[in-house]
Structures are given as C-alpha cells and as structure tokens.
Design brief:
It is built from 22 helices and 42 strands. The protein is α+β, with helices and mostly antiparallel strands and 850 residues long. The strands form 12 sheets. A 7-stranded mixed β-sheet has the order 28-31-32-38-37-36-35, sandwiched between helices. A 5-stranded antiparallel β-sheet has the order 5-4-3-6-11, with no helix packed on it. α7 packs antiparallel against α10, α12 packs across α13 and α21 crosses α22. It is elongated and about 125 Å long. One of its GO terms (molecular function) is tRNA binding. One of its GO terms (biological process) is phenylalanyl-tRNA aminoacylation.
C-alpha cells in the first residue's frame, strides 16, 4: 500500500515537515512493515514552470517532419526573469523548438528550462536544432514521468487550470508530494486504505484521527431519496458455508461530463498510490477505493438491461471483461448480471459491455460486500488479480458500502458536473462481528506483561471495539472494519501491538539440566564427522521422490511391481508424490548438479530417514485433547506410524587424486564405495560382511551386498550403465547405502580408542587357489575364524588368474598380521595361527596353498 503524504495529512496530524521515512518509522511501531519510498523529485528537478505560448510558427523540414518554432513566456507579464542559469533568456520569453502540434497560441503549458533534469537523467540545456537555439522544452506527461501519453503536450487549460506564467509547475501538478510504501499482512485488510493507515498512525502517535467515512453525509434517508436501480440477491445456496453477497448498494448520478479532466491533485495522489489516470469516472472510483478501502464500480446506466441480479454463474456462461478477454465462468463464480447475462465477476473485474465511455451521461455506482473466499477463488481461477479483489479477499468493512457510493457520487457531482439523482438501492443487510469473551488475565498469560485493566480497556476502545461485561469477563465487540478479530488471542495481539511490543520482556527460558547426548546421537555425530574427515561432503535433499525412483533404488530385485510407499495427499509437485524409501535418488541429483557445474571430482554423503509403511497406515480417529488417551489408544496411534530408519548413503565420481607430473591420478571405482561402507562400520566398531550381491540399479558383477550379523543392511558398488545414462551421471559413478539405524543398534555400548600395543606384530602371507566364483569376502571370513584371537588384521593384496592357475580358479593372496596383547609372539605361534586359518579355508572351500 502506497500512502501519499498530502493525503494522510488530511485525516491525521502528520507534520508538514514530515517525510515518508518519518511516516514509516511511526507505522513500524504498530506492526506495519516498511517497503519503499516513492518521491518524484528523486528523478525530476527544476526549473520547471508554467509557460504561455506567445507564438507558434510551423516549419516543414527536409525529412518530411514539421516542427514548431515557439516563443513562450515563462514569467508573469511585465515581470523580469530572476533565474540566471545559462541558456535562460533574461527577457522571460524562451525560444523553444517543439515537434508536437496539439497546442495553440495562448495555451498554458509546462516548460522545462535549461538546468532542469527529467526522469532518466535527461538534462535540459540550450542547444541548436533545426536551425534554432532551443532553450528549453515544452513537456508531455510522459517526459515529466506522470503518464504514458507521449504524442501530445500537456495543455494545462484542458485540466481546468489557468495558472500565471512562471508558476512552479511541479507544485501545481503535485510533484513535490511523496509516498511511503508499506507491506500489509493478509489479516489486516483495513490497512489497504488511507482511512486504515490514518487510524494506525493515530494509534502509533497518540494523536487525533479524523475518520473520512464520518465526513460523508448520505442522502439515503432524505425525504428526496427514492428507490434506485432494481437489485436482487439470488445467491440462495451458500458455498464454503456463506452467501457470496450480503449487501449490495447502488446510487445513480446523472448528467455527468465523461470528458471532464481529472484534477491535478487527484491525478497526483493516484499516481503516487500506484495507479494511472484513465478518465474521470474510473479515477473517482479508484480514489474512493484507496481512501476508504471499499471497492466500487461504475456502470453506464444506459447500457444496463433491466435490474441487477447477484448470483452464481451458470455452467458455460461467458463474459468479456474490461481487459477485452472472453472468460468462461465457473458455477462457483459469483457474478453480477442484468437481463442479458453477466456484466461482471463480483469483486474481481467488471464487464466490457457496461463500461463507462465517452458517451456516458448517467452512471449507476455500485458498492457491495462480498464473501472473501468466493472472491479469492474466482481471482485465482481466472488469473485476474486486481486492486478490488486484493481488498475483498482480506475483508472489507460491511458498513462502508452506502458511504462509498455516496462519496463517488459527490465527487462526480463536484468534478464532472453530475447531478445526484437520489436514486438509492440498499439490498441485503450487513453481517457484523460477533462479541468475544476476553478473560482479564489472558493478555498477561500470553505476553508476560501485567497490563492494567485500564490499559486493556483503553486499547480495545482505541481500535473501535465496544466493551461490555459478562461476569468477570470482558465482552468485546470488534469494530466492523476488523473481521480478523474473532478469538480472544487476536484481541491480546492488538493490546500487545498498541501498548508496544517493546514492553514485552525479553527473557530467555532456563533449560533444565540435561543428560547430554543420547548414545544414538553420539554414534550419528561420530559417523558424520568421520565421513567428513575421510573427504566426503555432506548434502541434504528433499525426502520427496517419484514412485519410479523409490522402486528402482529402494528394492534390490525388479519385481515388476512398485514397492509399498507412503503417498502424499498434497505433494509439493506432481512428479514427487511419495516419501522416500531410499536416500540415493536425492543424493545422485546433488551429484549431477555439482558435475554439471564443473565439479567433476566429487565425493558426497547424506544421512536421512526413509519411510516404510506398515500394514496399518494412520488411525481411524484422533483422541481429544486435554486428557490422557490411554495405553491402548496410544498403541493404536503408534501402529499407524511408518517405520522410519536412518539411512546413510555415499556417491563418488571422478578422481580421488589429481594427475600430477610423473604421478598418475587414481580414478574412484566400486571399491571406494565398499571402503566408505567399511569406514562407517569401523567408526561404529561393528563388522560388515561383504559378499557378492545383486541390485537392479547396480552394475552386474560390480555389486557388493553388505551384511551385519547375517542380515543384509545395504549395497555398495558401481551403478548400472543404463541408470548412469538415464540420470545423466558421470561414467563409473559408484555408490553405497547402509541402514545406519541397524548398525547403531548393534554397536557396542562403549566405543573407545583401541589401546596401542607395546609388543611388535608378526606378519605372514598366504596365497590360496580357490574356485573363481567364490567371493573373496567368504574366504576372508573363514581365514579370520580359523586364525583365532591372535589375528589383528587381514588384507587382500593380490588377485590372480591365468598362467599356472587351473581354469575356473583364481589365486587370492592375503597379508595376516598377528599380535598378542601381553607378549611378543614367536614365529612358531604365528605360524600355528596361520596354519589354523589355512586349514579351515581348505575344509570349507577346498582352498589349496599356492
């Protein structure tokens, strides 16, 4: 909402010396947000004066254009020129070249003299053109930044003005005025008006306020008043629980001059408020809407066919709106119609058929009160935001309609030569706010401020509420312009706002003595820190996926059926209708975005909950508040909550180390994904079993199944080439995903650093020939079991098949490191442990030492 300062001064005691910044500083105190300042003088500066055309000589040019060589008086007749800027004629008569032709000798025009600056940093100076020295410019409204008309000069006499030459044109046109722009929250629709802002300024400064609505004298109850245009409200079937229109007022004015100029003071205020001047009828309508907050509409009375009916649209009805677009109406649309059909979408936009034009002489002024929900839905349905709908969907004062209609008529009588016909129709009845019971202690309970009873009463009375007593409770009837005040808490907010938010104490709550992080929290933080230390970057993604992504990455085998998942009733986008069952799709999207921006060597990880529905989803009912529902009810609620384990996934692409002169870089592969999973297990002091696995999204033969205590907890390996191509990922992208909750639950109660032994290790190697299809992990597990407790670590360092190895077999070489905690091992003890490992491998797998 933009607030011209000259306008707000009419109804408040805002000082003449006050600036837009001063106004916003006061309004911020009562909860309105400052946005911007609009000041014409920021881009427009003088000398800009009124000039009288003394001579106009047309001069055809060789390019086919005709210019006018003009002599323009820019000082009062008989007065001397007092301006001394270079290019200004001391005689007070300027020679000016002008290309426009819509003015004559004797007209009063706006002249920008040398030294003036126009919008766009256009600086006026004396310059030679078309064979003359043009010392200034006769300006159009567009050149002055006050309109769009660039084809003709601004002739002041056509605005009903006859100022003396030399008059300050900027003052005459209201260009020294400025406007403060504020942001209005959806619950405070009354602030979309000068009336509402003036009231808020009076609250902020404790100064008197003059209600513009109280200055209007209606002719409704005069003896001369008679019934006006026929109106019927036939919206008999409520939609959204309410009727679309509760009050509809018409007031007829006759004999207007549709060509009457809009006076400069009104044009200036409309322009500063963000509206352009159109014609006198539309400008008056907009002016009253901005002043009072009540939208209104003007119909050409001669174009109305019979009485006016407010109803819901019939299916398939069409309406050509004022923007000349044909719109198909919806049965939920509230329309204003006459005998020929719809003539407007109520509260949104009028129809073109009854538009006021240059031939209009009589106008039927409409001011009504419409249901906010109906207006809001129609506005969105037809993509027709308007100043009227902006106000109606936030709530308009139901008592304003007759006053606004009268104000429009009064201004048309004053400015357009019309006559008030006293023909008035007031159909329906206003629906006023209901009383609210306010407990006297509630303001202190909600704000922590001990407001006195007098503060509470005076504040509520200041906003226009009527107070009564209901026992110990206050009975508060909100003012008609505050439809947002419906509950006691809203009244408390008003008390806190107007007494001052600065009165609310700032006290930080004292937290109770804590017990530190839980074991699970400690484990999670340790894993995240360890992954970061290993060179992975943590990312976060949305938990909303497509069903295809959930199915592809969330289940290992392609069953041809989508896996069970939770579908959202109101997804953020139609392509993401389900909650994730895996972390990988979001992580891979983050990887793709990084690679597309030039970061080719990437190692990312993400931890987050996944969602697996149970057989029961949700509950049939929600227990009432205020009482313990009982164990059985809680168990029923819990049964409907999906399982939400924590998963951790990693994705890698590109090189681990960059290529350097003489040092080849190493490309990441599936083994790095397995190592990442092993890193997580190591941080939690658990042991993962890595075996050959299968997964529909992974490369066949480069997929590891990760097991913990014999149960699958994840996969690691290289993505399938088709998946990589479809998702536009780098070649050989590798990933892993683990059920982190399962690993944390199985981790030891105490995790501490392993002691550093003071005894030396003994290392022995073993090379075994086994069947080619035997996974190295199975052979490694057998060696660990056979070696016994002296084995400290085992590492696979060579895999070989080929010459000297029987077909269908391979050689696996392991380094076994032995150490005792209490002594130095002998070679015989280490050899005995190694022999035990080999023996068990021979027994289980038929392994033969190479």
């Amino acid at each position: 909402m933009r607030i011209p300062l000259s306008w707000i001064r009419e109804y408040t005691q805002f000082p003449e010396s006050g600036t837009a910044e001063d106004l916003m500083a006061e309004l911020v105190k009562v909860g309105l947000e400052e946005e911007d300042v609009h000041r014409p003088t920021d881009s427009l500066s003088g000398p800009i004066v009124v000039g009288e055309v003394l001579e106009k000589i047309p001069e055809p040019q060789s390019n086919g254009k005709t210019i006018n060589w003009c002599q323009v008086r820019v000082v009062p007749e008989g007065a001397a020129q007092t301006l001394t800027q270079e290019g200004i004629d001391p005689s007070g008569v300027q020679g000016v070249v002008c290309g426009a032709h819509n003015f004559e000798v004797g007209d009063k025009v706006v002249v920008t003299l040398p030294g003036a600056v126009l919008p766009g940093d256009f600086r006026i100076a004396a310059r030679k053109t078309y064979g003359h020295v043009s010392a200034g410019m006769i300006a159009s409204v567009r050149e002055l930044g006050i309109g769009e008309d660039h084809d003709g000069i601004l002739v002041l006499s056509r605005l009903g003005l006859d100022p003396e030459p030399g008059t300050d044109a900027m003052e005459l046109l209201g260009l020294y005025d400025s406007a403060a722009e504020i942001n209005v929250t959806p619950d405070r629709g009354y602030a979309f008006s000068i009336r509402g802002i003036a009231r808020e300024y009076s609250h902020a400064t404790s100064t008197p306020f003059t209600d513009p609505a109280a200055q209007i004298s209606t002719t409704k109850d005069d003896d001369a008043a008679r019934p006006g245009h026929a109106v019927s409200l036939t919206d008999d079937t409520p939609i959204y629980g309410v009727h679309g229109c509760t009050r509809f007022v018409t007031h007829t004015v006759t004999g207007i001059n549709p060509a009457a100029p809009t006076p400069p003071w009104m044009d200036s205020r409309l322009r500063l408020a963000g509206m352009r001047s159109i014609n006198i009828a539309v400008d008056v309508s907009n002016y009253v809407m901005l002043e009072l907050g009540q939208p209104n509409h003007c119909y050409d009375a001669a174009k109305l066919d019979g009485g006016i009916e407010v109803r819901r649209a019939a299916a398939g009805e069409k309406l050509t709106t004022l923007d000349e677009k044909v719109r198909t109406l919806n049965p939920e649309d509230l329309v204003i119609a006459d005998q020929s059909g719809p003539i407007g979408i109520a509260g949104v936009m009028g129809g073109a058929r009854t538009e006021v034009d240059a031939s209009t002489s009589s106008i039927v002024v409409e001011a009504a009160h419409f249901d906010p929900i109906s207006i809001s839905r129609s506005k969105r349905r037809h993509k027709l935001p308007s100043e009227a709908s902006k106000r109606f969907e936030r709530g308009v004062d139901p008592l304003l309609a007759p006053l606004a209609a009268q104000r429009v008529v009064d201004l048309l009588v004053q400015l357009a030569g019309g006559t008030d016909s006293r023909e008035i129709t007031d159909a329906g009845a206003p629906v006023l706010p209901q009383p609210i019971r306010l407990e006297p202690t509630l303001p202190e309970q909600l704000t922590g401020v001990a407001y006195t009873p007098e503060q509470i009463r005076s504040t509520l009375e200041a906003i226009g509420a009527e107070l009564g007593q209901d026992g110990e409770h206050l009975l508060v009837t909100p003012p008609s312009w505050r439809p947002d005040l419906t509950i006691p808490a809203a009244l408390v907010e008003e008390i806190a706002r107007l007494v001052g938010y600065d009165q609310i104490p700032s006290r930080l709550p004292v937290p109770p003595a804590g017990r530190g992080l839980t074991t699970s929290q400690q484990r999670r933080r340790g894993v995240y820190a360890g992954m970061a230390a290993a060179g992975f970057t943590e990312v976060l993604s949305y938990p909303f996926y497509s069903e295809a992504a959930n199915t592809r990455f969330g289940q290992a085998e392609d069953t041809g059926k989508p896996m069970p998942m939770l579908r959202l009733a109101n997804p953020i986008a139609s392509q993401y209708p389900a909650l994730r069952t895996t972390v990988l799709p979001g992580l891979l999207e983050a990887l793709r975005r990084n690679v597309s921006r030039g970061f080719t060597d990437v190692a990312l990880f993400e931890a987050g909950t996944v969602f697996h529905p149970k057989s029961q989803l949700g509950s049939a009912s929600i227990p009432d508040l205020g009482a313990y529902p009982g164990e059985e009810v809680l168990a029923g609620l819990d049964a409907g909550i999906p399982d939400q384990p924590l998963h951790l996934a990693a994705a890698l692409s590109g090189a681990e180390t960059a290529e350097l002169p003489g040092v080849p870089g190493r490309r990441r592969d599936w083994a790095d994904a397995v190592d990442a999973a092993q890193k997580v297990a190591e941080l939690l002091r658990v042991r993962l079993e890595v075996v050959q696995g299968r997964h529909q999204a992974f490369h066949p033969g480069r997929t590891a199944e990760l097991r913990f205590n014999g149960v699958r907890v994840g996969h690691a390996g290289e993505l399938h080439p088709k998946v990589i191509e479809e998702l536009d990922l780098p070649a050989r992208t590798s990933v892993m995903e683990l059920d982190l909750s399962a690993l944390i639950d199985g981790s030891p109660e105490q995790i501490s650093a392993e002691p550093i032994s003071t005894f030396p290790p003994t290392t022995q190697d073993v090379s075994l020939i086994v069947a080619e299809q035997l996974p190295a992990g199975e052979l490694e597990a057998s060696l660990i079991e056979g070696a016994g407790e002296l084995l400290e670590s085992i590492e696979l360092f060579d895999v070989y098949s080929g010459e000297h190895i029987e077909a269908g077999h391979k050689s696996l070489a392991f380094a076994l490191r032995f150490r005792a905690a209490d002594r130095t091992l002998t070679a015989e003890e280490a050899s005995e442990a190694r022999a035990g490992a080999v023996a068990l491998a021979q027994q289980r797998h038929g392994a033969v030492q190479r």
